[in-house]
Amino acid sequence: MKGTLIKNSLKVTLAAASMSFMLMLTGGLTAKAEEVVAVPFEKMTDEDLHKAPGWETRNMTNNKTNWVYSNYIRDLLSKYDTITFKSGETFNLEYAINIPSGRNITINAEGATINITNTQKGAVANADFTKGGYGAIAGLTINGGIWKSTDSSGGKTSAFKIAQGKNITLKNMTIECANAGSHSVEIIACKDVLIENCKITPLGSNNGKEEQLQIDLASPATAGNVLSGKALDGSTCQNVQIINCEVTGNRGIGINADVKNAKGAGKKDRGKYQNKYHKNITISGCTITGNKAEGLMAYNIIGLKVTGNTIISKASAKKANYSSGIHALNQGGGNKMTVTIQNNTVEGGKQAIFVGSNGAKIKKATVTNNTVSNHSKNAVVAVVGCKSQKVKGNK
User: Which residues contact 314 (CB under 8 A, 6 or more apart)?
Assistant: First the structure.
């Protein structure tokens, strides 16, 4: 009998040791990779409520006052890696969905409408804006959905504010969130980004030149109101594809640089990262419209490819280069920037296409086979300040 007890005890000890060893190998327990389906508050049951950690002590009867649905979504994300907003339903978000670090998060919203009810909070944002080195978001995919502000004037902050991350995909989305003076989508210092088949338009009016889709770098001048601490490390965006999208704004798309005359930072911080360059930005198959400035503004890029788009600026020619359909400029001190603009239909004010430099010469510019028009007596295509250039077949 005593021998049997010793044997059983030994088996338990070995099993426990084996389990500890397995946990050590796998890095311990992680968030579940299962999918959870979210339903609107008014259709939730206690069973739906209790799927989120911390909510199992609540019930639908006693918690209809002071309800914050965004907190429920936040807590679901602490447990599940994939959230699906139920198709055919309408959801109201009081605060932005915060994307946690260190995990690959998927939000499916095909067929759903997500209303943004707070003009100061936006729709989706980092949970952590202090991490640098592309370490704030390990992966994020958002698929589908009509995302819109309930205020007809639109939100006063960027609706989608995604920074210092990698493996970012936004696809099949309709975004009508931001005021014309804000950004609908703001991508700051991210790698491996795909924005595909999205329609992005502003709400309300504003006389500024803000773009609805912004590709930015992590500098105090350009992103100091979003990032802090180690996140302001000068990182740029790399490997970005914008494919088959429709983007309209005061400026359609803006790819930013840190220039010495930038506003929004202390004088000592302006131009701190002026010689930093984005890498490999592709824009293809899109319709891009700037109502008060460029359709596309593109600064400091090594490997800019703009092919097969329709790009229009409706701005007056009096706004000079800001009225260009495409405005590509080297602001940095190195002969690094390379530009390819081919097979587009481009319309502008002063010029349809302007490629030039405020810094060192552009290393290489290829501007070929574009259909172009402008609303001034200036050259319809202007390519200047390049070490090497090929300009032909534009008509």
Answer: 289, 290, 291, 292, 349
